[in-house]
Structure formats: C-alpha cells, structure tokens
Amino acid sequence: MGVDAGPLRSEPAGAIPGELVVARAWKYDGGPHWVVPGTYLGADAAGHWIFQPAGAFVARPGAGFYAASDAVCLVPHQGPSGPDATVRTADWVATFYDAAHPGDFRIYIDVSTGIGWRPLRPTGWEVHSVDMDLDVVRSSTRGVYLDDEDEFAEHRAAYGYPDGLVARMSAAAAELMAAVEGRRGVFDVEPGSGASRAARAWLEDGRRLASSSGG
What we know:
Layout: E1 20-26, E2 32-43, E3 47-52, E4 57-60, E5 63-66, E6 71-76, E7 92-96, E8 105-119, E9 125-139, E10 143-147, H1 149-159, H2 163-181, H3 197-212
Parallel strand pairs: 1-9
Antiparallel strand pairs: 1-2, 2-3, 3-6, 4-5, 6-7, 7-8, 8-9, 9-10
C-alpha cells in the first residue's frame, strides 16, 4: 500500500514551526487519496499540529478544491509513548475547524493506519497515512456520529482487509467516538460553537504565523 520511497519515521524529529508539511493519505490498495498542504506548528502531549490555511489546494484523483477556511490537523504521536491519555489508540488523524468553516464540521477524525513521516527536500515533511474509511465526526448540526461504515464494509471485501485489521480499526473508531462524545482531552469543545478548545489555540498560532510570514 502507498508508495515505496523509503521507510516512514514514527516522529518528525527536528521539525521546526513554519516548515511545510504535506499530508498524503492513501487507500489500502495503494491508491492515492487526499493531499493537503500545511505548515508545521509544533507538538504537545497529544501529537503534532499542522496549520492548513484557507485557500490551500486540496486534491485527490478526480477532485480538487481550495479550502474555504482555516483548519488544524493533529497527527498523534506514533512512537512508544503514543498519544496522551485522551485515547489509547494512535490509529487516527484529526482535522479541527471553528465557526469560520462554512460547513457544519467541527471535528473530523479519519480512522487510519500506516501513519508516519518522511523528510521533504529541501526542507519540510510529508506525513503519510492509510485511510481506513471510518470517520468520527462532530457536527454543529448533527452532533457526534460515525460515518462511512458502508464504505468500510465494501472495501473490506474489495481490498481484502485482514480480520485483525478490521477489529483494530473498529475498536479505534469506538474509542474515538467515546472520547468525542465525552469531550475528553483535545476533543473538549466550547459550548455553542462545538469547536475544540485545544485546536482553537493552535488555529490562532497558525493565523499569527501566516500573518507574520505574509501568507
């Protein structure tokens, strides 16, 4: 699955705020999925935070658009320590939005495997993941829900997901659902807006960084 361009690293050691980060998602059969450019902001106990600004070109085969609002992406730590105590699983990548987003998403979690980092030339990083279909979503209109269970079932048959991987991804989705519903850790949200409190601080950092760099 994915592209063989050398081993992925569990962490982007030495990553510097302001560096380019390109998020590349794949499907289990090796087909390309979404590609999203962003800027590295830093890390905390939960993982590594990436600013994805309004106007960034987001694309996958057959589709592309310019992001309508700022977002931040969180890639949980993949090393021995794992993410913080919010959840035990590190099989996910989350995108956080605030009220500037024209849609109703506030938290969008892609249940994923094969997460890892690779340096870019001349500077910056790629972060790779294999999208496993299941999405945990907090919506400002629909609340918290699990999306694309039908796609997960279809791809399980079409791509031959191993039974162990199916069990692992299903368990990750259930754990993430409980964390988002319980508003734990980075999934704690502000009343009314439904935006993550932790992500708001990183969004503000990203906007300041973009403003200072003329972006």
